[in-house]
Automatic annotation (TrEMBL):
Protein name, entry field: DUF2237 domain-containing protein
Organism of provenance: Marinobacter confluentis
UniProt cross-references to Pfam families, sorted A to Z: DUF2237
Top-level taxon of origin: Bacteria
Amino acid sequence: MTEAVNVLGEKLEVCGTDPKTGFYRDGCCNTGPDDLGAHVVCAVVTDEFLEYSKAKGNDLSTPRPEFGFEGLKGGDSWCLCASRWQEAFEAGCAPRVKLKATHRSALKYSTLEDLKRHSMDLS
């Protein structure tokens, strides 16, 4: 297995552990052939984004205990579907991104420049 790489070409960093995120619930935005939604953009969600996502049919804020999901609140780090992040970007409500924890496959959906404009981890 090869080491996961972020959009900056470096080793993929952890996105979030409280709540534990990632398609594989390993805290990282790792992806594989079974991740059809490409959950690869590490974002710090906002209330505005959570409302937007809910309106688009993906309610991330309501707890779903049957799936071990407590629901997200503004400020939580979460691996988002790359296409949803891009859609929110185009709608003007994309959350900030942790580039070092965003998998390089996100570049199939968004440009590095757009992701950098919403970066939290570049100085």
